[in-house]
Amino acid sequence: MTIDSQAPDHPTRDAGFGIYLHWPFCASKCPYCDFNSHVRHAGVDEARFLAAFRSEIAQTAARTPGRTVSSIFLGGGTPSLMKPETVAGLLDAVAGAWSIAPDVEVTLEANPTSVEAERFRGYRAAGVNRVSLGVQALNDADLKALGRLHSVDEALSAVRMAATHFERFSFDLIYARPRQTPEAWRAELEEAIAHAAEHLSLYQLTIEPGTPFFGLAQAGRLAPPDDEDARILYDVTQEACDKAGLPAYEISNHARRGAQSRHNLLYWRYGEYAGIGPGAHGRLVQPEGRIGTVTEKSPEGWLARVERDGNGIVETEALSADAEGDEFLMMGLRLAEGIHPARYTALKGRALDGDRLETLIADGLVTITGTGNIAATARGAPVLNALVAELSGQV
Fold first, then answer.
1. Which structural domain range is residue 39 located in?
2. For residue 276, which of 53, 102, 89 has the smallest C-alpha distance?
3. What's the rounded Cα separation, in Å, for the pair 181 and 280?
4. Residue 233, in any domain of the structure
5. Would 72 be classed as within a structural domain?
6. How far apart are the first and last CA of the chain?
7. Which of 26, 137, 146, 281 is the most buried (most CB within 10 A)?
8. Is the overall model pTM greater than 0.85, yes or no?
9. What is the pLDDT of residues 72-123, one digit of tens each?
């Protein structure tokens, strides 16, 4: 099979430049969560952390001159535990370090238990124009089992508040929960869709090593659906969202046309992004090529490093052409739009194997779109890891 090999200009930077700001603090640690999040009952010195964020932002900007920021994402942890004044300070620091696109998307993650109308007004005034709410379930018993501190009523109240203060908002749900039936999930999902304006993130529960849920599963005290039942729940998800005009633009993310998260698209289209804050990851394009950065995970350790060195980076990796191509393939095939093979060639230094691609097309697992992109089909999306391994020559 002949693959279009005309490479676009600037193949490592043509998907934009974004900023990820990681606020690592939570009111409590959920038993399924393996994110870098920490509980500090004694409180957090926000002024001291803000000063450190400013230092790391300044150093990162010095390494990435001439960029225009198209998206900013405040993730965590629970960024909505921050005072609006702290959020304003973070966004002012970013605006002072780089040029900002006129239509920049600024998203803040929030939990239903840590938001109120006054805070939302403050975040909006600070420059946030999109919020993402961690609802996770519309079932009080399951919320309790997931370790969430809010009720369904509180969650829906937060969603209504978000709709009042922001033109753009999204919320998350977790499915494939223990004992969850397709009928119950369909009803819950239809209720969620009735409250969703433009975007939903719908994640299948995964049992991650090192979490309390992992220990319970190992002990036989927690039994999420098996692969076959989880696939049925996945199919219910696609069907209900498609019917409601919220098709999947990425495996776990659904949106109305034009309402996709720009920051998420930047990741999956393999753009460039700076990771700022404890435990943040970044991908920066430097004169020598693309590099990966990782900062110190411990909030206090990161703070000490930044106050000493100006940044909290503990790992910098120069990515090989092979690594860039494989990352691009892995990220891009999550998207419904797929990847352009010419960009893969530009990053990897060689084209995809035409025979392997032809076999996957014949098997109904991938397709060539009208724009010449390679995309996973509805049948191929649930076995994405196998597709990536086959296309990248790892099997």
1. 17-267
2. 53
3. 36
4. yes
5. yes
6. 19
7. 137
8. yes
9. 999 999 999 999 999 999 999 999 999 999 999 999 999 998 777 789 999 9
